[in-house]
Amino acid sequence: MNVKMVLILLVLALAMIFALVCVLLTRGRAPSPCQHQPPAQEDTGDGQSLVFADLTPEEMVQVVRYLQGHLGVQLVDASRAKPSDSCIASIDVQVPTKAEVLRFLDEGGARPPREALAVLYFGNQPDPNVTEYVVGPLPTPAYHRDVTVQKYRGKLLYHRRPVTSREYVDINALIQRELRKAPRFLAACCESDGTDLAILTTAPRGFKSGDHTTWFVLFHNVAGTGYYLSPVGLEVLVEHGDLRVSQWQLRKIFYNGQYFASTGDLEDTFVANLLEVVRIKKPPAEAVLGSMRPRHPPGSMGPLQYEPQGPRYSIQDNHVTFQHWSITFGMNPNSGPRLFDIRFRGERIIYELSLQEALALYGSNCPGGMSTRYLDGSFGIGRFAYELVRGLDCPYTATYVDQHYLAESETPKTNQNSLCIFEHDAALPLQRHFSDSQSLYYGGLQKNMLVIRAISTLINYDYIWDFMFHSSRAVEVRVHATGYISSSFFHGRGTTYGNRVGPHTLGTMHLHHMHYKVDLDVHGQLNSVETQDMGYELVKDPWSMQNTIEWLYLHRERLETEDEAAFLLKAPLPRYLSFASPKPNKWGHLRSYRIQIASSAGEHLPASSSMERAISWGRYQLAITRWKEEEPTSSSIYNPDDPWTPTVIFTDLINNETIINEDLVAWVSVGFPHVPHAEDIPNTVTVGNSVGFFLRPYNYFDEDPSVDSPDSICFSGAQD
């Protein structure tokens, strides 16, 4: 090898090392010498997206100060508030009405006033209640108005409020006091005095409206590990509905298949040698079932994503552009990620795309597991979207965005780097063809997409929320489930409700259901719903009329009413279902976007259940309704604590109104049943545990829009 070749290879090696150093070490908020500015796009944002923007910490502080000075009520910081106090429960942005926003964005109208929505718990009043106020204008509030009755057609009863962190602290203290009444039992069963046991809540809290009795499940708690896999067999039922914490009490104790009236009763039964005790030693950290500590030293580094000229997307405030896509993003502290005003080449396709709710419903032969129906919006899907780990949760090269919220405190909190945006190379052709017939050539396009991602940790489970924007102009929405399974103590006929995954651990069967709102505006607000499906007709062949042929044809139908467009979970869904504009493309077909669902959801609850109406959105894999300002959501943070008289009933949105040439909304349910097994220990893997849906152009364009991608290639046999 000559000297010139050696020098060339050395220069290339140094360039590669330099590029990798830039990728791994210098990727941050501020531009650095290693980073290149993204290529110019036709729409880099002019501040219009701020009409949807989440509140800043400064705005939250101003709203708190205003409420403290203008309500005439003593407000206690929610982090310290007792149920008998009044406090600010949460503050979020009040998104302006759609009509106001469209006048501003499309018609040059005035910018809507910026407002906040404040939720307050009034516990120190003769009639305790939950009240919602709209406060504005920001950043200097001057007015507030009570919107509770307008939104919910009545008062919000106090028992519907979500349980606060302070209440959980008081419940934990009560349980600890009661456990001290059974010292010999605890020492025998669990090698514990009770103080080192973790306590996990269940929901809902009773069997009828007004109940506030909750089962709590106890686990061995080993620092740095997932306690969810180490149940000790002990569960307690706490009544905590009284506004006076001193009146809360334990109503029932469960241990290893038996029920007891109190911890004293449990202790007496144990001392009398009338109780079968399963003696469980507290495991060391290195041997605990839920440990995620690496078992081997690091190996060689795997592949890394590399952006040779820096990111090809551009972010300004809450707005991202990518290859003619334009998206406004945000985070609802309760319901999670929300996107607005999604456009291609300046033309709006989707006004709102947002997560609404996530349900986890369990089965078990222990009382906590058998009664659990978590509705995660009340815990805070967005609030518990924590910081993302570079290189694992998202690529090193991703852009990371902070999210701010105010909940159960008068001080705003920040989840740093809790939303990431990146371009993803799927290592798969989006399209390709190798021609060896008539002429020799190859054409293709790699499958790259923009990804907006957040990950919520909701007690034991971690949900990865992805919104993906393809160069084919399809939008893909997907959720992956990982994290720890929730478990019960293994006893009796436990395998009727799951699989045994540890010495005393039953991995309890459950199902996941997620609900999304999709406000498609396909070439304008007025759309209709078109379906196409296949059929066969047996006919004589037209060239001889002597033989029969199965003639495959396309059956087209326009759905006329909301009832026709409400597809129950087990009902057949048309293979093609689209939101159609009245305007045709070049070939005479209505410009449309198709909804394509990939899900294997199980039955959310029998219709006979007294709490089914609270999650009645789970009845449908897809429902399409007329858009209405007074129907903004499919669920409510108040539903879990009173599911028997739900605050929001989704089925009330479906009332057989016409859906021809109207502003329409699609409500999409996705989910899957999960029967935990040995391979879910210590963590459930994302492989096979994901569901979602696509929004795909269907005659919206005159040809595949990805042909305009600068990433496409084509070469012929005449080329080298």
UniProtKB/TrEMBL annotation:
<feature type="modified residue" description="2',4',5'-topaquinone">
    <location>
        <position position="461"/>
    </location>
</feature>
<comment type="similarity">
    <text>Belongs to the copper/topaquinone oxidase family.</text>
</comment>
<dbReference type="InterPro" id="IPR015798">
    <property type="entry name" value="Cu_amine_oxidase_C"/>
</dbReference>
<protein>
    <recommendedName>
        <fullName>Amine oxidase</fullName>
        <ecNumber>1.4.3.-</ecNumber>
    </recommendedName>
</protein>
<dbReference type="InterPro" id="IPR000269">
    <property type="entry name" value="Cu_amine_oxidase"/>
</dbReference>
<feature type="active site" description="Schiff-base intermediate with substrate; via topaquinone">
    <location>
        <position position="461"/>
    </location>
</feature>
<feature type="active site" description="Proton acceptor">
    <location>
        <position position="376"/>
    </location>
</feature>
<feature type="domain" description="Copper amine oxidase N2-terminal">
    <location>
        <begin position="73"/>
        <end position="143"/>
    </location>
</feature>
<keyword id="KW-0732">Signal</keyword>
<dbReference type="InterPro" id="IPR015802">
    <property type="entry name" value="Cu_amine_oxidase_N3"/>
</dbReference>
<dbReference type="GO" id="GO:0008131">
    <property type="term" value="F:primary methylamine oxidase activity"/>
</dbReference>
<feature type="domain" description="Copper amine oxidase N3-terminal">
    <location>
        <begin position="161"/>
        <end position="257"/>
    </location>
</feature>
<dbReference type="InterPro" id="IPR049948">
    <property type="entry name" value="Cu_Am_ox_TPQ-bd"/>
</dbReference>
<keyword id="KW-0186">Copper</keyword>
<dbReference type="Pfam" id="PF02727">
    <property type="entry name" value="Cu_amine_oxidN2"/>
</dbReference>
<dbReference type="GO" id="GO:0005886">
    <property type="term" value="C:plasma membrane"/>
</dbReference>
<keyword id="KW-0479">Metal-binding</keyword>
<keyword id="KW-0801">TPQ</keyword>
<dbReference type="GO" id="GO:0009308">
    <property type="term" value="P:amine metabolic process"/>
</dbReference>
<dbReference type="InterPro" id="IPR036460">
    <property type="entry name" value="Cu_amine_oxidase_C_sf"/>
</dbReference>
<dbReference type="GO" id="GO:0005507">
    <property type="term" value="F:copper ion binding"/>
</dbReference>
<dbReference type="Pfam" id="PF01179">
    <property type="entry name" value="Cu_amine_oxid"/>
</dbReference>
<feature type="signal peptide">
    <location>
        <begin position="1"/>
        <end position="19"/>
    </location>
</feature>
<keyword id="KW-0560">Oxidoreductase</keyword>
<dbReference type="InterPro" id="IPR016182">
    <property type="entry name" value="Cu_amine_oxidase_N-reg"/>
</dbReference>
<dbReference type="InterPro" id="IPR015800">
    <property type="entry name" value="Cu_amine_oxidase_N2"/>
</dbReference>
<dbReference type="Pfam" id="PF02728">
    <property type="entry name" value="Cu_amine_oxidN3"/>
</dbReference>
<dbReference type="GO" id="GO:0048038">
    <property type="term" value="F:quinone binding"/>
</dbReference>
<feature type="domain" description="Copper amine oxidase catalytic">
    <location>
        <begin position="305"/>
        <end position="706"/>
    </location>
</feature>
